[in-house]
Amino acid sequence: MKNKKIAVLVGDLGLGGAEKQLIFYLKALKSLNYNIKVYFICDRGDTITAIDKLQIKYEFIFDNLKIFRLYKLYRRILNFDPNLIQIWHTFLTPYLIIKFLIKNIISIGSIRGDGIIEISKVNFFIKSLYSILPDYYLTNSINAKKNFTKKTRYRSDKIFCIKNHIEFKNVPTEKKNITNDIIIISNLLPIKRLFIFLHVIKSLKLKFPKINAIILGEGPERKNLENFINKNQISKNIKLVGKVDNVSEFLSKSKVGILTSRSEGFPNAVLEYMASGLPVISTNVGDVKDVVKDDFNGFVLDEKDLKENMVQKINYLLENESIRKEFGHNSFQIITNNFTEKIYLNNVKRFLNRVRQR
């Protein structure tokens, strides 16, 4: 297959981890000289600004009835005549049915979560489509690959894993003007379990009355989180900052990065903490243990006694500045050794060369 034309189907343009990784992936496709066209089966969202900067072709496919939306998509893709059709969000898998109407096209599915949550949200019919429509799958998590294979019996040799990419430029400098003891980057969703963090802050306040924590992100849980914060009188200790463009600025003024999620594939937030030279305390989800090593650059906590252990580990890092700095340095070294742009580009290249040789 000599031509390098790829149609990418996108179902969300928010500011989540999957959408951030979409930008990196499209940049890689451009670097590899693919002729790209993106089809948005969703409304305009914040990520469209970054898409525009890439100067690639895209269009929105609108229609209230899914069958008409599918037909429009089929006609547009037929016009474009790609060799590859790839979905970026798992829930778009049924749209890959159009591959049966287009000759010589290879379909690529997507696993963006833990490989279980994707299956748990669908009925038996859709689950069966997940098993038969994609010729290959792309995931960001080895753990998700194992889970998905077990749940669907999809062939594991047709699921490829490319770890999330993270941009970093300079070695983090000596932190000055630190205003945040703890930072969380997270959408305000139930699955992120941010109430655990609020309970942790409430406990830490007893020892550190002036402890200061921030949560960067937005979502439907905001009101409930605000109510808890006010009711428990910790409004001076924790702030819900909302969406921000200058995430790195907040990270540079923080001491410790936290993840409290119940489920993840390969969380962007952890990489962002590490790229800014922060130690990480995380729940044991997805592939976190691949990058966060206990007593080296942070701690990975099991579910048993989670709140108590998180309080203990945060307390340990806040009280021991030299260890905190050592952990932060180790975090950045892991990033520079494993997550360079060159490594990511080579991984994408190998993946696409493999599927195109079918």
What does this structure look like?
The protein has 358 residues and is an alpha/beta fold. It folds into two domains: 5-165 and 340-356, 3-Layer(aba) Sandwich (Rossmann fold), CATH 3.40.50.2000; 180-338, Rossmann fold, CATH 3.40.50. It is built from 13 helices and 13 strands. The chain has a seven-stranded parallel β-sheet with strand order 3-2-1-4-5-6-7, sandwiched between helices. Helix 1 (17-31) links the parallel strand 1 and strand 2. Helix 1 (17-31) packs across helix 13 (341-356), helix 7 crosses helix 11 (306-319) and helix 10 crosses helix 12 (321-338). The radius of gyration is 21 Å and the shape is elongated. The termini are close together.
At the fourth level of CATH, the homologous superfamily of the largest domain is Glycogen Phosphorylase B
Molecular shape: elongated
- Order of the strands making up the biggest sheet: 3-2-1-4-5-6-7
Distance between the termini: 9 Å
Please provide a brief summary of the model.
It contains 13 helices and 13 strands.
Features:
single chain; 358 residues; alpha/beta; Rossmann fold; 7-stranded parallel β-sheet; 6-stranded parallel β-sheet; 17% strand; elongated
